Please model this.
Amino acid sequence: MNPETSPLGAPAVRREGREKVTGVARYAAEQTPPGCAYAWPVPATVASGRINAVHTEEALALPGVLAVLTHDNAPRVEKPDDAILAVLQNDQVPHRGWYVALAVADTIEGARAAAAAVRVTYESAPHDVLLTADHPGLFTPDEATGDTEADRHRGDFGAAFASAPVQVDVTYTTPALHNHPMEPHASTARWDDGHLTVHDSSQGSTPVRDALAALFALDPNQVTVISEHVGGGFGSKGTPRPQVVLAAMASRHTGRPVKLSLPRKHLASVVGHRAPTIQRVRLGADAGGALTAVGHDAITQTSKVKEFVETAALVSRVMYATPNSSTTHRLTALDVPSPSWMRGPGEASGMYALESAIDELAVATGLDPIALRLRNEPSTEPDTGLPFSSRHLTECLADGARRFGWHERDPRPGIRREGALLLGTGVAAATYPALASPSSASAHAAADGTYRIQVNATDIGTGARTVLAQIAADVLGARLDAVHVDIGNSDLPKAPLAGGSSGTASWGWAVHKACTALTGRLGEHRGALPSEGVTVSVGTEQETQAESPFARHAFGAHFAEVQVDTVTGEVRVRRLLGVYAAGRILNSRTARSQFIGSMVMGLGMALTEGSTMDETFGDYTESDLAAYHVPAHADVPRIEAYWVDEEDVHINPMGSKGIGEIGIVGTPAAIGNAVHHATGVRFRDLPLTPDRILSGLAPR
Model:
């Protein structure tokens, strides 16, 4: 289509918006089939050990109670690829909060009362739940992620750092963080003549279907998973979680549909979290600020159930030019819940440490922080030598500095003051990989001139339906309202989950290919379309799995202005501004919302969010939104998101990159750097809570 009239880039209104605000849109917990029963799980109360006995007599005697599933009577399942799904299969307790029983009743109140009446006795074992830099169990994982090495060394980092005229050697820590989506993790399951149908709160119903089929020894065609509307996930719904298996088990055991919605206080233990990190960053530079050595060593934890690596050091392989680098990951398995993806996994933690250290190097060299970054801009990806498909970080920094008024600031720390308030500004860069996975899609042209696109994408609140319709309309040369999109059902053409900022790139690529093929078919057709219309089905496995000769990343620049109250220690963010280079922006309305939302999540990481491990009891103490402090609108009075026009022909047919996570990864460092500029004190442990600020400001 003519670029001036193309629906791509237009601020199209979210298609399901009215349904959501009027309550017509139904989520997994709102599905209530006839005869539906309700389940409530029983979490373990020890951090390590085994179950001696589960006493269910009192629970079963309560009115309306249908069953109590334990490891003694729960349906047996096949060994899963993901060990967190092996629930109620044995007497082992790998961490506090692991589910040891499930009560099922006619009502949710009855199920909850039955769960409270279950008595479990344990043989407790000593537990180890604290991550330390010198933990004796530290090891090198085989991989950081996918096929990426845990350790990478280039040049002679040790010698280069030792001889560098300017050195920064600092350690940063980030706590465990929990996703806490607004919608709880919920599943409603029913069996009909051997066919399992599940409504699940998930970021991808195809992976859930495949996991359930494997667990219950079914053909995938015997399982349907529906995730039509999902109220946020941020990674915690990126893979199947225990509630979907428990609901299917309970339905099979009772012969009735069963609904299970996890209580929020359970989420910290069973649906994943961002693992805490201890990161040492060493930067060596010459007197002019040119980096000669970059070292980034990340220490983190996993559970004894499964291995997961928070890949914090990967960002240092991408960001800055240097002839010598060393990036490592060390892991220890503790008696803790299994960590998993949380929005911007690896990059969010890693960019905080790297970009804070870069700011410290700017102070050490006397350079402006933006000038220092520009001085070390690479021509190719440092660790691989691959050319970037596109990299417009310099434009992001320049445009952001202009919009923010960066160059008008006094660079001296601790100078600006309004009474008891110290004021400061900070900047940080950001990167996130531009990913795509194989997907399938079908495009149908109806005789009445309308089109129907089918792809098992998942809309987790980002506007996937709307953007996919825009992609289709652009290729077909059709009006946007003539294109209908079906998503969120595993019976649709197979597609990957919504995660890694790769959803639109993956699904959109398949939709683009299907619509292109359909356009070709229609161009060959003569006369009126048949009553059944014309359908084309395609897949993108060949395209997406081909090795690329380019390094593909999105980039961004973040700016923050803060005030620090010297009396209370409270940090308030006055302004946040982000500028992004993320390929072609497909919908300016939904994109701006994504950027702003992720920037607010980065603010939470910097100032308010953190989960504390109780060493004695072996669990996280912040188990609800009263204790786990998520930022609200009032926490940032002014927030702005912009982007540079970026044409990248090496990414996908749309030229788009993921935008869901690039907004979070630079924000914490920008805020932390602004706090240093305000106070003259460097705080290296997140979150920057009042107690830490007051301790740092106290006279020494």
Remarks:
- The two ends are 66 Å apart (CA to CA).
- The chain has a mean pLDDT of 96.
- The first helix runs from residue 17 to 22.
- The first strand starts at residue 37 and ends at 43.
